[in-house]
């Protein structure tokens, strides 16, 4: 991923008054059964809506083809996640890389999508980094604005620079950020996923312990800097789970909806027009983090070279 905002794809939707209500679903990760169940549950609240998925669509789960079929059936809008970028890159470089050099869960996903690889690749090529629109609230709250901006991203954004000033890396991978004071400009940078463990695994000297404590205090979640007015809906942060940050009036300005379905937790969807989150429980644990493999049923366990 390039740290450049020059190649961002941001799509705009009409305001709520000119379209169906949005139903925004967190990281699906190949959990098609739960996605279908969540959609059916959502229909009990709002019968007709526009389905939108915040990214990480196919990897780490048992049924990526099923997710692809749901996307097609509902003409779902989808956002590019970091795992979507990685899958796109892997397919694109398939002739240059050895299949056996790939991570085990990537091999499994490539096997599972082997008959749909071209169609899924075409979808991955078309994914935007964000959707923007205007929410016209259906709730009557005296202290809420009648309408306000909505931004939907996979991971996070730079609240000091806005969506257009956010790097692709931050949009796809940000959970924690920190200030970088190098050079003449103070700017936010993404803290890599392994940042904490790398620091804490340093030698246990007094200096190292002091450095680890200092660096650990430096990091914070990107949404701590966002104070509105836009409502930002995002995924990517399963460890944080369902998250809601509001203005003093109670009107939401941040909603995190990655609740770790593939890890055996739940799949979450959110209606921004009525500020309603809906969840269904995962049928089982589908991904083993320690072994970095998808826990497939026996008839899916044998892989073929693609």
From TrEMBL:
Transmembrane residue ranges: none
GO-annotated biological processes: polyphosphate catabolic process
Top-level taxonomic group: Bacteria
GO MF, one annotated term: phosphatase activity
Stored InterPro entries: Ap4A_hydrolase, Calcineurin-like_PHP, Metallo-depent_PP-like
Pfam families: Metallophos (PF00149)
One cellular component (GO) term of this entry: cytoplasm
Calcineurin-like phosphoesterase domain sequence ranges: 21-238
PANTHER family: METALLOPHOSPHOESTERASE, ZINC-DEPENDENT ENDOPOLYPHOSPHATASE
Protein known as: Calcineurin-like phosphoesterase domain-containing protein
């Amino acid at each position: 991923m390039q740290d450049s905002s020059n190649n961002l794809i941001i799509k705009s939707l009409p305001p709520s008054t000119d379209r169906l209500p949005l139903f925004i679903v967190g990281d699906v990760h190949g959990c098609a059964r739960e996605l279908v169940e969540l959609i059916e549950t959502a229909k009990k609240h709002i019968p007709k809506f526009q389905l939108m998925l915040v990214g990480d669509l196919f990897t780490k789960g048992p049924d990526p083809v099923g997710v692809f079929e749901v996307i097609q059936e509902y003409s779902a809008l989808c956002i590019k996640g970091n795992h979507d970028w990685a899958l796109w890159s892997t397919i694109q470089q398939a002739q240059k890389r050895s299949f056996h050099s790939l991570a085990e869960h990537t091999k499994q996903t490539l096997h599972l999508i082997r008959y749909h690889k071209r169609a899924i690749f075409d979808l991955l090529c078309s994914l935007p980094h964000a959707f923007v629109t205007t929410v016209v609230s259906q709730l009557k709250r005296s202290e809420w604005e009648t309408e306000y901006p909505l931004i939907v991203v996979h991971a996070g954004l730079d609240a000091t620079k806005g969506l257009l000033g956010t790097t692709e890396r931050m949009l796809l991978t940000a959970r924690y950020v920190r200030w970088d004071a190098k050079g003449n400009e103070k700017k936010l940078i993404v803290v890599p996923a392994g940042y904490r463990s790398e620091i804490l695994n340093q030698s246990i000297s007094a200096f190292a312990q002091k450095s680890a404590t200092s660096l650990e205090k430096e990091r914070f979640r990107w949404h701590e800097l966002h104070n509105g007015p836009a409502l930002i809906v995002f995924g990517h942060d399963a460890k944080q789970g369902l998250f809601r940050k509001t203005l003093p009036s109670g009107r939401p300005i941040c909603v995190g909806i990655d609740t770790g379905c593939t890890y055996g937790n739940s799949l979450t969807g959110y209606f921004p027009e009525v500020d309603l989150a809906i969840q269904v429980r995962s049928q089982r644990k589908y991904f083993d983090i320690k072994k970095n493999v998808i826990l497939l049923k026996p008839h899916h366990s044998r892989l073929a070279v693609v």
